[in-house]
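Co-fold these.
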Amino acid sequence: MRFLVVAVAALLLAPGATAGGRPVQADLEAEIVCLTCKTTLDQSNAPIAIRMKAYIRDRIAAGDSAAAIKAQLVDQFGPGVLAEPPKTGFDLLAWALPLGALAVGVVVVGALAWTWSRRGDDEPEASGGVLDPDLERRLDDELDRFED
Amino acid sequence: MVVLAGRSRYPGLCRRGVIGKARTVGQFVAVAAVVGLFVLFGWKLVFGDGSGASGQLTSGDSPVAPDFTLPRIDAKGGNLTFASLRGKPVVVNFWASWCIPCKDEAPALQKTYETYRSQGLVVLGVDAKDFRQDGKRFMRRYGITYPVVADGRGSTLGKWGVAGFPETFFVNRQGHLVGSVIQGGVDLGRNRERYAEGIRLALGSPK
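Predicted complex below.
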């Protein structure tokens, strides 16, 4: 569980590849989606993708930060322009749900494993009532053959 | 062999009941997920947008033109709600400044606006998936004076069923789509007749 908390925190706090220093054109092109072809800009030569690349180049030259450039693009085209959904507000669900599902899965599997192991300990040695006698007999035969 | 894990002389076999239950639950969840997906698929088919108003128009209906409110990038500024144009015939043209055929057809649309403005016809441009400043530059360059709104997100495209740029629709005074959707420039030879027909139907003039 502690691992999951750390993983979520790491995802939430992870800085972008371009944060801090001067934005890198190639990094931003990999983080922005072409409006018409739905691939990232670095994989597209559609007219609007070429225009968006030029816009990014201009904004970098003008001294804007990566975050500012992304914010401008989101203002123009909406959050769908980002290859990764923002880690805030409703969009945070896109990050949290898979981790939540993983956590639930781990808890369920752990609980099942714990239940099974406890049952194994609690069950009396002679648990003949679980299987019907016919099946029990056939199973004994099979196991005897197997052991031979 | 799993069998060796339990039962009387192999104690783990008594777990079979638990495993069986878990398997049943798992199967139930899997079947429920598949059924859920089918329900979603059916819902999408019945109630989904499909190809939008364009598809309805193509199949012979005359649907009400989908409403929207978008910021204007023309000189007037502010927002424009499409429903506010009810009572006027409207030519709705979806375009973008990076679209080459949009540049070619721009003079024809402007001419339409100037010709039929006195009869109440409105040409409305929807500059979609485009930088607003590029749209404004485009308008200046091609002398566009009719109202233009910006739809950078392309939020109107699905409802209207726009498949590409440029695309032009005709809306009559009652707010219904009429004529046919013009895909490609309205100035193209193959589109001219349908363009004129669309304007005629939107104006409500006898054929």
